[in-house]
Write a structure and sequence with these properties.
Blueprint (H helix, E strand, L loop, with lengths): L1 E7 L2 H10 L5 E8 L9 E2 L7 H10 L4 E4 L2 H5 L2 H7 L4 E2 L7 H4 L1 H11 L6 E4 L2 H10 L4 E5 L8 E4 L2 H13 L10 E5 L4 E4 L2 E4 L3 E3 L4 E7 L3 E12 L7 H20 L5 E11 L2 E8 L6 H8 L4 H9 L14 E8 L16 H4 L5 E5 L2 E3 L3 E3 L3 E9 L2 H12 L15 H4 L3
Parallel strand pairs: 1-2, 1-4, 2-3, 4-5
Antiparallel strand pairs: 6-9, 7-8, 7-9, 10-15, 11-12, 11-15, 13-14, 14-17, 15-16, 17-21, 18-21, 19-20
Length: 424
């Protein structure tokens, strides 16, 4: 029996804790800092995700057997490195390996070096130079903060005016702080987005089914980029041959290149992809489980998650064959009014029990807190998930459950998965 520590406090961490709670091998689940949902399946620990020394001391004193690092910024500050130096078992890449996410410049240069297909790009550290390039460019662009911006630093710009506004916001207005010290300016790729998660042990990888993530705040992929407004898995538009292509053309070359640089990647490598007329291009890399992709993946995974994590840490993933539930999983994220901008917290939440009485529905907590009742405590508040044998039923259950939940200012996209229905 093992004691597990999950670092993080969002919907992704609740989903991981929920899945691990089903393992007969798990004795205790600790979550730092956690939320009101993780408290239902484990023990919340009031330690900030960037308080590396405190997390290390807690893991040591509590006799933690395995630590799972959820958020990108905890990886970027080297939490995994410190744990490994003290001989603790931890799932997640080291700081240098995690630069595949924390530095978009490094990621683009690495992809170019090893021939991984991606969008053409330029890097700028000076606002005036970037502005001149944008004004001279004929066509739509994507402007990205080079550093970590909690999934919100990407600006698809279909007009020159929009590109100039994005540059100004990042490099002059510094809406994402030092993450915008440098920007990556890319060609705009039009196509179908698809997400892949690869569990990696540094040498080999096990791939999850393709998923579809919804980043934009509004229906029809309008509004600002967010941390994620919903997800569908498996992606209805792709067959298993996609995984073969992604493994050969993306995952294996990147793992090899990272290892050659001494950046041994142990953790979840998550490339966001664009299918451009049948050609796969990598939009970006993430060095951890996606959010809200994790919420749908954990609803479909039948294998014991602890077995998979242990195999990754021990370099034994080549022995693992994952089992998946038949059918589909859908996630609809409920946010506070104003997200991804400023928002208020402290609103009472009702209806979760009623929502979970619907067959196939589980509600994962993200920005919640328990204080004389359940209250909102973040921008993304809840992730309503549903599973069913067919996608239309999974979508129907998810949105039926959404209608049960209520809090002041609640917002959500009403078109998660809708475009797939006409294709079935």
């Amino acid at each position: 029996m093992k004691k597990v520590l999950i670092v993080g406090g969002g919907g992704r961490e609740h989903a991981l804790a929920w899945k691990l709670s089903q393992s007969s091998q798990v004795q205790e689940i600790h979550v730092a800092p956690g939320n009101a949902g993780t408290a239902q399946v484990g023990r919340n620990v009031p330690i900030n995700i960037l308080a590396v020394k405190e997390l290390l001391d807690y893991a040591t004193s509590a006799g933690i057997d395995l630590t799972i690092v959820g958020p990108d910024d905890a990886l970027a500050v080297g939490l995994v490195d410190v744990f490994l130096e003290e001989g603790l078992r931890v799932f997640g890449p080291t700081r240098l390996a995690a630069e595949i996410e924390s530095s978009k410049v490094f990621a683009k240069q690495l992809m170019s070096a090893v021939g991984v297909p991606t969008a053409a790009y330029r890097v700028f550290g000076e606002y005036e130079q970037a502005l001149a390039y944008v004004r001279a460019y004929d066509g739509p662009l994507v402007i990205k903060a080079a550093g970590l911006a909690r999934g919100k630093g990407v600006y698809p710009c279909r007009s020159q005016e929009a590109a100039e506004e994005a540059l100004n916001a990042l490099m002059v207005g510094r809406v994402h702080g030092e993450a915008g010290d440098r920007v990556v300016v890319e060609e705009f790729l039009a196509g179908n987005e698809v997400s892949i998660h690869a569990m990696c042990d540094g040498n080999s990888a096990v791939l999850f089914p393709p998923a579809r993530d919804y980043k934009r705040a509004l229906d029809g992929d309008g509004g600002e980029n967010t941390g994620g407004m919903g997800a569908v898995a498996p992606h209805p538009g792709y067959d298993p041959s996609l995984l073969t292509t992604v493994r050969a053309d993306v995952i294996e070359p990147i793992l090899t290149a990272l290892a050659e640089q001494g950046r041994w990647f142990n953790g979840c490598l998550y490339p966001g992809l664009m299918d451009v007329n049948g050609d796969i291009r990598v939009l970006e890399f993430n060095a951890r489980f996606g959010d809200p992709e994790t919420q749908v993946y954990m609803r479909l995974l039948e294998s014991d998650l602890l077995d998979v994590l242990d195999a990754a840490v021990e370099g034994e993933l080549h022995r693992v064959k994952l089992r998946w539930r038949a059918g589909f999983a859908v996630c609809v994220v409920l946010t506070a009014k104003g997200y991804p901008g400023s928002y208020q917290t402290g609103a009472p939440i009702t209806g979760i029990e009623q929502a979970e009485s619907i067959p196939g529905v589980v509600v994962f907590h993200a920005g919640t807190a328990a204080n004389n009742g359940l209250l909102t405590a973040g921008g993304r508040v809840l992730a309503v998930t549903a599973v069913a044998d067919e996608l239309p039923e999974a979508l129907s259950r998810a949105y039926q459950a959404v209608e049960c939940v209520s809090f002041a200012g609640m917002r959500y996209r009403q078109d998660i998965g809708a475009a797939f229905l006409s294709e079935l």
